[in-house]
Amino acid sequence: MTVVDTGRVRLHVQRLSPADGGPARATVVLVHGLLTDSLASYYFTVAPAFAAAGLDVVMYDHRGHGRSARPASGYGLDAFTDDLDALLTALDVPGPVHLVGNSYGGTVAFAYALRRPDAVASLVVVESEPATAAWAAKLARLLERVHHEMSRDESAALDWIAAHQGDHTARLAKSAGRLVRDTTIARDIPASPVLDDAQIRAIRCPVLALYGAESDLAEQAPRLRALLPRCTTEVVPGLRHSVLVEAPGRVRDAVLDWVGRHVPPGTRRAEQPAPTVSGCLTGPEVGSR
Fold this sequence. Notes:
Helix content: 40-55%
Order of helices and strands: EEEHHEHEEHEHHHHHEHEHHEE
Strand content: 15-25%
Largest sheet: 9 strands, mixed
């Protein structure tokens, strides 16, 4: 495990080198979702397969999540995008990189592709969408509901979750409740700057978008194809929002095929002052956040 100090927040990072010990074919950066998610959702599903296929794999916990620091404020989308940029600079990651974003992680990936188009070879987003006004309104409702339920009677809410979804999910929910209750995340994310259609059309890198057929986000598939000149979409039958966890083999194969078809000539990111990096001794976050 590595901890990267960006100067604003300390981020927990895991990196897997190509399993054969040779040079990496490309670098994939795995960006996880919001609240109950962490880098563990990649570490225990697709990340090892990516390394086995000869890729350099970078994954990290968002601020406030997993084993990263949890500041009291500073949770707008721009802050998450800043974190990704600072992390890649600190690790001196060769670019351009392939970003894989699950749920909110995909929203961060879209924002980063707009900010640093030179640094992104392609995007793969799973059950995700760019930050629009509709997205901000939906996140506001979600975060307010979590705040209300976990503040009103946390014990009862966690007992119900444990009974219906298991103790592991209840532990994740407890951590998510603390994050929403004890920080400004519920105000910051909905207040983030949003994109209009013209700004979304400015994303020029290849984009692969995966959705569960039963998810309310599946309607994003035709919209993204209409807006983005180089977008491919896949809809997975029978699944809702948990495509990464429920169909990791499908995600693995899609990402490996996509990266294989979009490996650009090797370049490196522009030099920037590097934040401080320090090592730690413990292993990856397993979900007891």
